[in-house]
């Protein structure tokens, strides 16, 4: 009986070791004011095995999307929802202002700075199996790893002013 239980315990350990996970570093969203309907989310994602970020959910938002910003044929920077972000095995993929990012739209409440919000990140493994991870995103005016601007000027990676994040 002892050997059988040890085998079951070992099998359980193996199953846990095979579980797909994505390392999420420095997750943050921009704070909002009452009445603001959207904000961006950012982080660095690293998957041990090939995977894709295929969606997000956040209770604070009516709509949560995976987005990209890129220059179109006319030279205009445009933001749009995309179906997935590829996460090549072992390669860090940065979600950042002006590039790949997350959007929380139709916000149900303001997101004051120095708080956190849970975001469910939805992934698909190379074999097609779906998995989710809940990540606490810091509400911060800029990435916690970015240094504060020394001259009082706005950070180059964090656009400011009205209309900085338009569709």
Question: Can you characterise this structure?
Answer:
The chain is mostly beta strands and 167 residues long. It has a domain at 22-137: PCu(A)C copper chaperone (Immunoglobulin-like), CATH 2.60.40. It is built from 1 helix and 10 strands. It has one helix spanning 2-18, and strands at 22-29, 38-47, 51-57, 61-71, 77-81, 85-87, 93-95, 101-107, 116-125, 130-139. Strands 1, 2, 3, 4, 5, 6, 7, 8, 9 and 10 form a 10-stranded mixed sheet that branches. Strand 1 and strand 2 form a beta hairpin. The longest helix has 17 residues, at 2-18. It is globular, with a radius of gyration of 19 Å. Residues 2-18 and 147-167 have low confidence and may be disordered.
Characterize the main sheet.
10 strands, mixed
Termini separation: 63 Å
CATH homology group of the domain at 22-137: PCu(A)C copper chaperone
Helicity range? 10-25%
Notable characteristics:
44% strand, globular, mainly beta, Immunoglobulin-like, disordered N terminus, ten-stranded mixed beta sheet, 1 helix, disordered C terminus, 167 residues
Question: What is this structure's SSE topology?
Answer:
Blueprint: H1 2-18, E1 22-29, E2 38-47, E3 51-57, E4 61-71, E5 77-81, E6 85-87, E7 93-95, E8 101-107, E9 116-125, E10 130-139
């Amino acid at each position: 009986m002892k050997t059988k239980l040890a085998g079951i315990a070992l099998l359980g350990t193996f199953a846990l070791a095979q579980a797909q996970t994505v390392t999420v570093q420095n997750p943050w969203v921009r704070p909002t004011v009452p009445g603001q309907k959207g904000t961006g989310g950012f982080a660095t994602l690293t998957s041990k095995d090939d995977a894709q970020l295929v969606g997000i959910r956040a209770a604070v938002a009516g709509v949560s999307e995976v987005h990209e910003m890129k220059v179109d044929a006319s030279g205009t920077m445009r933001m749009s929802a995309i179906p997935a972000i590829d996460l090549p095995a072992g390669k860090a993929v940065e979600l950042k202002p002006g590039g790949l990012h997350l959007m929380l739209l139709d916000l149900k409440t303001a997101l004051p700075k120095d708080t956190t919000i849970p975001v469910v990140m939805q992934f698909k493994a190379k074999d097609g199996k779906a998995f989710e991870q809940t990540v606490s995103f810091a509400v911060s005016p800029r990435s916690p790893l970015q240094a504060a601007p020394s001259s009082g000027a706005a950070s180059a990676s964090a656009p400011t002013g009205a209309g900085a994040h338009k569709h």
